[in-house]
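It is worth pausing here to work through a concrete case rather than discussing structure prediction in the abstract. The textbook approach is simple: state the sequence, then state the predicted structure, then interpret. We follow exactly that order.
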Amino acid sequence: MMFRKILLPLNGSVLSGHALEPALMLAPANGGQLTILTIPEYRDLIITEPGHEGVSYKFESEQKTREAFASYQESICTAWGRAGLTIRTRLLDGDPASLIIDTAIAEESALIVMATHGYSGLRRWRLGSVTEKVLEAAPCPVLAVRSAEPIQHLLLTLDGSTIAEQAVEPAIKVARQLHARVTMLIVRAAAYQDERTLALLAAAGGSAHYDPEDEYHRYLEELRGQLSQPGPEVCLEVARGPVAETILDYAKARQVDLIAMATHGRSGLRRWIYGSVTAKVLREAECGMLVVRPPADLLH
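Step two, the predicted structure:
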């Protein structure tokens, strides 16, 4: 399976353009649909010339601004269009996050591809930013791209839970289409027992000294064995330490270009803004993120 319908929000900036090439690479060669959504920002020009300080002039008329963005969209269609791929354009006014989410729902998008802001991944994303709102409420996975560099190494973070496993299929799809290698990583945190650890302890007779590392490796082997072929190269890793910090350190040391993970909590990121593994990685990762919201029935 591939991402048949992809939503690509662009605002005309160089930064947002970083998401264009991955979106095109992820779109199927035949029967794919890429929707380019542009939401114009209308600005006034404030004059600071002596004698005219504070005088505000309309930088461009709204009509001219819309015409410029329409031309921008058309240039993308002309430059990047190919047989078998339908490129649609939408030029809308309103709240960016709401429009992105509403369009993804209306278009039945399988993936949203957009650029991050700030020079340190999501570190500078303020609470209430467009991207954070999209991550919180998106009806499909969101690929947040940080730079124009190709995605060659994808880190898929797991914890043995069904919720975390929801990121496996989208991550493998992305890796396959972008020709990236994958590392599946489980981090064992001290004094932390997830549902799989408890099950493993029970299977071992409840021994307090039972080390589940071998079982985690077998678990990862099982997941890798279930992947459809041909697929990307997949390596398996089990690490130990504080979960978020270990993920971040691993990503930096191993030159990871994209971290894939599922959110937890009934409202996506809303309950995970402070102190959570997912939120900490989102805030501090120096690479792109693929964020997957599990189905609602898994979050109750």
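Step three, interpretation. The longest helix spans residues 62-80. DSSP finds eleven helices and twelve strands in the chain.
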